[in-house]
Amino acid sequence: MVENKSLNKDLAKEHGLSLYIKTNGKKILFDVGESKKFWKNAEKIGINLEQIDYLVLSHGHKDHGGGLPYFLKKNKKAKIYCSEYYFDKHYKKILGAYIDIGIPYEYLDVERFNFIQSTFNLENIYLFHCFDKKSDNPINENLYMKNENGEYEKDSFKHELHMIIKENNTNTLLVGCAHIGIENILEQCKTEKVEIHSIIGGFHLSSRTSLNKNEKYIDDLIKYLNKTSINTIFPCHCTGEFGIKKLEKNSGFQVFEIQTGSKLEI
User: Fold this and answer.
1) Is the pTM of this model over 0.90?
2) Strand residue runs (E) in 131-196
3) Can you say whether the dihedral through the CA atoms of 52, 90, 103, 114 is positive or negative?
4) Are 32 and 68 in contact (CB under 8 A)?
């Protein structure tokens, strides 16, 4: 519904992410972007988001959940799934100042929200967390949260929720920003005994507030991915142009960048 770039000048873009998915007779929205642009784009291409059955929220940053109040106002039927830590306080540190990038708690509709503590099966959809971090992405260094004492500390990304769709003998992993690290998420998939064949979403290989190209981390990630069962990835959003080009050049699998207006059949 919306992404950083657009294939069509008539469809709005923004630094955010929202994906419309049809699987097993259900209509799913994965994130709601930073504003109401996701809904406006849907109207332009003839998709009725009032009929969404499930909304899955990947993590508590406003570029993925800023459109939430608009969705709640317009869609009255969807069940909403997110991490139990979704509404925790999240910040980005810029020039010494902590900027609030979280989702306000007043957006919570108690009757419709389902908070996932660990894992959850939803028909052919599998929702899960990744709490075990074996490696770190250096671009996360300016992302913070508040602990129980109200003190700032580095974000653990326990508020991230990931989704696997199982269909046509293919397991597709969907991630919002994968702050915790794609490699760590895939290791969690191994623990859950799920072999992943394709990945859609943001890999967090670039940052709007940093000129650091994160090259070593990207190279190490590609080496890791080349040893997995992945055959196709569809990067977007925070993957960044530099990261996407590195993936296209060095990966032993297919890489297709997606933008606002892209259509996939898996």
Assistant:
1) yes
2) 143-146, 152-154, 162-167, 170-175
3) positive
4) yes
- Tell me the β-bridge partners of 82: 115
Hey, what amino acid is at 114?
A: N
pLDDT value at 148 more than 90: no
Query: How many other CB atoms sit within 10 Å of the CB of residue 168?
Result: 10
Question: 153-158 — which CB contacts under 8 Å span 24+ positions?
Answer: 155/90, 155/179, 156/131, 157/59, 157/133, 158/83, 158/85, 158/129, 158/131
Residue 23 bridge partners (DSSP): 26
CA distance 171 to 165: 6
Q: How far apart are CA 89 and CA 220, in angstroms?
A: 31
Q: Is 178 helix (H, G, I), strand (E, B) or coil?
A: coil
* 4-16: pLDDT as tens digits: 999 999 999 999 9
Would you place residue 89 in the very low, low, confident or very high pLDDT band (cuts 50, 70, 90)?
A: very high
CB distance 79 to 110 below 8 Å: no
Note the Cα 136 to chain centre separation in Å.
17
Q: Which two tokens stand for residue 122?
A: 């939803």
pLDDT, position 76 = 92
Q: What is the largest CA-CA distance in the chain?
A: 49
Instruction: Tell me the average pLDDT of the chain.
Output: 93
Q: What token pair was written down for 126? A: 């599998």
Average pLDDT over residues 71-90: 94
